[in-house]
């Protein structure tokens, strides 16, 4: 037994010395042109941990900037510009990924935005576009990649991470569309867990609380009261402000905090974690 434990320990040590995701391929949607995006921070961290990263964004120039940063740190990266909601997007990014790297280990469905309205004033288009980007798009990308995940007998580390939100867990004023979509993501994730577990595929969701990122494109008057309140630039809040927001850690999260949580769910450290929703909130909601 001692010899076996020593062998396992040595194997893990070698794996981690090369990076938690060494040699693995990860698709990550949704980048940012500022230093403050969760998608960008995740892509940079994954590349640092040895992953070959496939990044996507609707803004091609934004994507070029992130690609340049990853290459500057010695990472292996492929950029695929496009709208995640477009009909041809899933096939486009999956085909490009397999052509370049030959396989897919992880998909991180991070792309999204908010379109806030009070429920009684929410038009159909505000509802439909949020459902399209936050629910339909992840579903279609995962379905397109199914042949590269549903592999019998595979022992490779493979996972799906769908980004949800505390709004999906608890609802939120002014976000009937967003809360419903992010709640739907949880059901999608649990179903993948149950259907694909037999292929050694893990599926988890992540629900962020207050993370200092760029401001939403469509802020509402309720923004200051949301647990995912965001800022144009990161700045420290006073203890009183953090206490008002109900954050036990007395600070908002950084994009590095967010990226680290995604890395954990994709890494071998979470090899027996599936069907879970990881709340990254600084302790809010306990």
TrEMBL record:
Swiss-Prot/TrEMBL keywords: NADP, Oxidoreductase
GO molecular function, one term: quinone binding
Pfam families cross-referenced by the UniProt entry: adh_short_C2 (PF13561)
InterPro entries: NAD(P)-bd_dom_sf, Sc_DH/Rdtase_CS, SDR_fam
Record organism: Coprinopsis cinerea (strain Okayama-7 / 130 / ATCC MYA-4618 / FGSC 9003)
High-level lineage: Eukaryota, Fungi, Dikarya, Basidiomycota, Agaricomycotina
Entry protein name: Short-chain dehydrogenase/reductase SDR
Gene3D superfamilies per UniProt: NAD(P)-binding Rossmann-like Domain
Family under the similarity heading: Belongs to the short-chain dehydrogenases/reductases (SDR) family.
One biological process term in Gene Ontology: fatty acid biosynthetic process
Superkingdom as given in the UniProt entry: Eukaryota
